[in-house]
Amino acid sequence: MLRGFYTAASGMMAQQRRQDTLSNNIANAQTPGYKQDQATVRAFPELLIQRMGKQEINTATGSFNVPQQRQIGSINTGVYVQETIPDFKQGSLRETGLTTDMALVNGTLPDETGGLFFTVQNDAGDVRYTRNGNFTVNGDGFLTTGEGFYVLDQAGNPIETDGQTFTVNNDGILQVGAQAIPVGVAYSANTNDLVKEGQGLFALGEDGQALENARENAAVTFNIQQKYVETSNVDTVQTMTDMMQAYRLFETNQKVLQAYDQSMDKAVNQIARLT
């Protein structure tokens, strides 16, 4: 009976974590470049149940007990949320009319799990990756993200505009005055190597394969649309449906837990009293 408590409780905890993930997706449905998270639910390893007993055997010289084991079957001990995985599916484009906004549009990618990203520099000076092209120009004339992180060119240097008006063509070449600056675009052959850091940034995981210059890979094609941003890829209708499903599953596990609690109450306070 106690095992049933743990199984039902694990189901409630898994659905609660799943609900938290879905709620975060809904909260970022209007965040440019946001990639929704998907919670993967996995069962705990199954246990093999055996009945242990003994059999008395009589012989001419006496009797003795022989240990016996009989296999009953397997039992599952519940579920848990193993991990949350970002979905890097391309979001739709929204026109903003702002010259500092850019949308990175996937073209041909040689790997099914591949993805393209703008390269930026965080406060610690480390390179990070983002799909959020909602850029701006700071007081020093550098192109930055909305959070103030420098946008890098293909050589890994901050892009300086000197406060001048600039244009960006479909190949991602930023033209400011007489300068032609290629906006930094990185390609990841396996986006599962990336981990979310918050503020729309992704970092390379410990065992991940380093990202490459997208322009140096002949099999990769892309274009950049100026005055557009990529919207979130959250499907709000589907997410709301999933939230209702998670709530119902949580409620079902809660009722199972209450049933076990009532059975335990009878076993302790009624059956035990009679004995």
From TrEMBL:
Domain Flagellar basal-body/hook protein C-terminal intervals: 225-269
Main location (coarse class): other
Annotated GO CC locations: bacterial-type flagellum basal body
InterPro entries in the cross-refs: Flag_bb_rod_N (IPR001444), Flagellar_FlgE/F/G (IPR020013), Flg_bb/hook_C_dom (IPR010930), FlgE/F/G-like (IPR037925), LlgE_F_G-like_D1 (IPR053967)
GO biological process, one term: bacterial-type flagellum-dependent swarming motility
Location relative to the cell: Bacterial flagellum basal body
UniProt keyword terms in alphabetical order: Bacterial flagellum, Cell projection, Cilium, Flagellum
Domain Flagellar hook protein FlgE/F/G-like D1: start-end pairs: 114-175
Domain of life: Bacteria
SUPFAM superfamilies tied to this protein: Flagellar hook protein flgE
Presence of keyword Transcription regulation: no
Domain Flagellar basal body rod protein N-terminal: 5-35
Record family assignment: Belongs to the flagella basal body rod proteins family.
Protein name, as recorded: Flagellar basal-body rod protein FlgG
Taxon lineage: Bacteria, Bacillati, Bacillota, Bacilli, Bacillales
